[in-house]
Amino acid sequence: MSRRSKAFDRAKEKAESIIRDPEKARKIIDSATSKAQAVKTSSQFQEVSEKFQTLVRMIRAWINREYRDIPWQTIVLAVTATVYFLTPFDAILDFIPLLGFADDVAILTAVLSSINHDLDRFVAWEQTGGNTRNDAPSVEADYEEVKPD
Predict the structure, then answer these.
(1) What's the rounded Cα separation, in Å, for the pair 76 and 147?
(2) How far is the C-alpha of 45 from the C-alpha of 36, rounded, in Å?
(3) What is the pTM (predicted TM-score) of this model?
(4) What keywords tag this UniProt record (predicted)?
């Protein structure tokens, strides 16, 4: 198993415990927001900055029970990516110039890509003012009209 996999697995374990403690989750979100502001000028991070901000808002809305239309796997991945982003001792140490955030950006890009549909739904919810009750997951299905014989 690679060092990156171990670091990601540790971040996932920590994320699963954080999700169950809203106060810890709020602290992680605040820390991620601060770090994102500090590194936003990094050319590597600029590529994912806007989506990462959306991810943070989605986690915050979930923690605050404002928006719950998120599959469990998505919220775990979102918090895992955030924890990984905050961890200074991951696959590539964050304080190494030019390389430090390369692995963070790679992980964030992969997670953001895999949950893009959920992020888009969250943004749509935000654009409605967050007023619509959207707790039940929607089901999209193809159908075939049945005509009487």
Answers:
(1) 44
(2) 8
(3) 0.70
(4) Membrane, Transmembrane, Transmembrane helix
Residues 6+ apart with CB under 8 A from 126: 57
Token representation of residue 32 = 């991620």
Q: Which two tokens stand for residue 90?
A: 């991951």
Contact in structure between 74 and 115 (CB atoms under 8 Å): yes
Domain boundaries, the chain: 3-127
Q: Can you list the alpha helix ranges (DSSP code H) found in the chain? A: 3-19, 22-39, 43-46, 49-63, 72-86, 102-114, 116-127
Q: Give yes or no for a contact between 10 and 61, defined as CB atoms under 8 angstroms apart.
A: no
Q: How far apart are CA 41 and CA 20, in angstroms?
A: 33
Q: What is the pLDDT along the chain (149 residues), one digit of tens a residue?
A: 444 567 777 888 888 888 888 888 899 889 888 888 877 666 666 778 889 899 999 999 999 999 999 999 999 999 998 988 887 654 444 444 445 566 778 888 899 999 999 999 999 999 998 765 444 444 444 545 555 65
